[in-house]
């Protein structure tokens, strides 16, 4: 299904033909995310992502607008802790144009000083828009408290103080170091011919110098020794609760058992962080939903175990219902976690959530854009073949493994608890 | 490009069924569209439709809420009920092998909700919490203040999610009545899209919905709902909603828009694209985001429905830039009214809108939503094939005229929620 090719300059190319619609999706992935940022320049990867839409040697600034829209296409990009990625999805006739754009982005972005300055305030606006959401504020604080050593500590958008002081040279240097073929993966999925596509890719990317693979993050988060707590008291209308447990990386054998544990607690969420399948979680029979939402203690509850390159976090978060207390929500969640750690899951639950996860993996790949995302995402944090092995790994999980993972990871000393306590304004 | 060419059948009782086979993934998306929504909320019970949506799938006459939850979760199927101003929809996604069972469940939910008192109490508190959460969200608060100022005594001033007082006063009987009145076979459209055989799927729907007896006379064509005109606005109005604890302000700037049935609708949608959508937010994005670096988001939108929904421009900006942002919107609109669009802008927007149709009709869920809108507004089953021609026919003059008809800074309604108050 997927044809893997490595160009002479080290660029890995993954092509999958899907002929259900006359579309093609092109994604270019870079192994650089907010974990690859040092002190003083947090947020530089995300800021670079913004700058890489602002004109290149061969795409004048004023011709960026409409470059893919003319073909009815959409483009976008995102940055997270392990990756920066860019995509275009358009009519298959626009394939050559999409490849041209990505080649230009890899090697020819301009970083005009005036554009860098103008984007500084756009990004601070993006950060402040996020701060308007108390759940996001709480998430940032809890994540920072959970990581003392590993750079997963800081938010992808960066700290505002760094965003205020970073220079054009910081941005451009980061771009040149990380945007090299040997640090990238190009994915093409859609109504294309693989051989012809490869030729076009060679034409656009073949001459880009290989560059050197940038140094990798070496820090390892030491084992957490004690429960940590974050209490945010700010004006607001409702309370939010969050827990974050240090969790296994995607390639760790405990990842899928913990994913199953989350599905038992919260319903299966799938593994596409781009679209989330666009389908709401089947969670009404899940343990935490029944214990919190059906009992009226919380309006929402959810869990998140993300596939990441290094050990990240397993989060549980809840919106506290009007008139209910954070401590009541906390008591119930921690009680349910204890029940899971001591009593494990039942064979019926395992069967149910495996059926859910099987369905989610289908919903996760229902467009050429999503299939291309999944292939590139897993290649960036592990290997593209891991995408095709999701179902096998998930189906091999036993109740014993789930119980062992819950017992190991969902402990008091491995968690950080966060409260957002709304203060009534005087 | 072959069109969707779905199969459409009207059952004897007036239920419309549309089926579209698509074998991209072994899954099915379905929508049971019901022609009722918050517009039908009793005046002193704002939130009736929203609460009804939350309780509807929490138990039927023959299935408990827990049994429904176990059934859906056991299949990895998702089912939710969403409501808008004029439409409520039961939306479900499942694997193809579960299509029959999940469709049967959706039919049961639509036809025989139990409206259990305990469930009403739980979901009422849940809805109230959601309303309270939105009171802390500047984007929601700005949108609410904007609607109230723009529509005044017109029903579009009201919130779909309701008010705390409205939701608190809803009784079980209100929900039962809302369901009896609004869930009527002639107002039901069942859409199924995915890995299925169209004829067999229609037969399954007919079996589950065909014996639903109609109160009104069945008709193949559903009449459009008559919504009164909004009152004309003659003056500019700025409504501040101070939320001093927030990091930035949300601005909503706009006008009363048009009905979906308006002959200018296609021209308006091209105008909207060129003004505030194309690439990163059209002309407005060029100015406010790209040139001035003031906002992460700025865009315009056209909400044309049975009545004159709003035409809005929205942006999130630092408090210090609120006046500058509003002045920039004024300046862009004034310049547009004076000089019109360029030919290039209109050509680009049209090519984009035409070219994006296949991409927007790629997934089962997207096709189902598109078909429901086609049916709701009587656009015709070949609308996906006619749309490129309709868009092509929009001239620069028509787009300029559309702008002139709606946009005028002198009559703008503006709401600002966030850490800002007027000097």
Commentary on this structure:
The complex is a heterodimer of chains A (426) and B (423). Helices cover 40% and strands 19% of the residues of chain A. Chain A is built from 15 helices and 11 strands. Chain A has a 6-stranded mixed sheet with strand order 1-2-6-3-5-4, sandwiched between helices. The termini of chain A are far apart. Chain B has 423 residues and is α+β, with helices and mostly antiparallel strands. In chain B, a hairpin with a 4-residue loop joins strand 4 and strand 5. In chain B, helix 1 packs across helix 4. Classes of the chains: A alpha+beta (426), B alpha+beta (423). The interface between A and B is large, with 75 and 74 residues.
Low-pLDDT stretches of chain B: none
Strand runs of chain B, count: 11
**Mean pLDDT across all amino acids of chain B:** 95
N-to-C terminal Cα separation of chain B, in Å? 56 Å
Oligomer: heterodimer
Shape of chain A: globular
Please report the number of helical segments of chain B.
Answer: 16
Q: pLDDT under 50 segments of chain A (min length 5)? A: none
Please give the share of residues in helix of chain A: 40-55%
Q: Outline the biggest β-sheet of chain B.
A: 6 strands, mixed
Strand content of chain B: 15-25%
Enumerate the strands of the largest sheet of chain A in spatial order, edge to edge or round the barrel: 1-2-6-3-5-4
Radius of gyration of chain B using CA atoms only: 23 Å
How many alpha or pi helices of chain A? 15
Structural class call of chain B reads alpha+beta
Within the largest sheet of chain B, what's the order of strands?
Answer: 1-2-6-3-5-4
Binned, the helix content of chain B reads 40-55%
